[in-house]
Amino acid sequence: MSVAEKTEKKSGGLGETVSVIVQALILALIIRTFLFQPFSIPSGSMRPTLLEGDYLFVTKWSYGYSRHSLPFSPNIFSGRIFGSAPERGDVAVFKLPPNPSLDYIKRVIGLPGDRIQVRDGQLFINDQAVPREKVGQIDNPDITEVRGPVDVYRETLPNGVSYDTLDLTPNSIGDDTREFIVPEGHYFMMGDNRDNSTDSRFSVGFVPEENLVGRANIIFFSIAEGASPLEIWKWPTQMRPSRLFDFVR
After folding, report:
1. Average pLDDT, stretch 155-160?
2. Which CATH superfamily is domain 35-247 in?
3. Catalytic-role residue among 60, 62, 95, 106
4. pLDDT at 34 over 90
């Protein structure tokens, strides 16, 4: 084989490798933009539903697409394309209204036009009390983030969606609020860890529909808080196998 032939062969091999890498990156970008986006839980605001160390997939098509569906949220169009309204009770990822560079995850509680208020720890929607039943206690710091038993209440929204909430502190600042009237094109979001959640009761405010990224769908991996998923040798003691491939409700 001549020198020219060897050079041409090396050049062709390098070109094919670059082409494969570029195609893979484009495919990954398409999947992330239009289908699924991986998301890790950064805080305990959604305990006991979601724990720090949970890794989940967010379905991007659930609410249609806005500029926030794209990496870095380029301001190339407004509103939503193929938009679909979230349902009350959905666990949704959204861009924080005061700082759209940050992703938050909370539960959709209030829809446009709703009146939302918390009185003595009980949620009211349009002046109707949301059924709230004490279902027991959890004494597991991996779930509650605190030592000692924590009361667990099950709420059932008007559309029948039920979920558990934690009551860490009686008479906390979030247990009694003013009445919030959700504007058109906005949503009221709350964390399931009611006494340890920065949500629409506080600085998050109402979430514009444009800020919705997608609906949390399934937990594909879970590891103890503070552990690194890259440290595979620690998986046997730090992974949470009971949470793998668990649907988010």
Report:
1. 98
2. Umud Fragment, subunit A (2.10.109.10)
3. 106
4. no
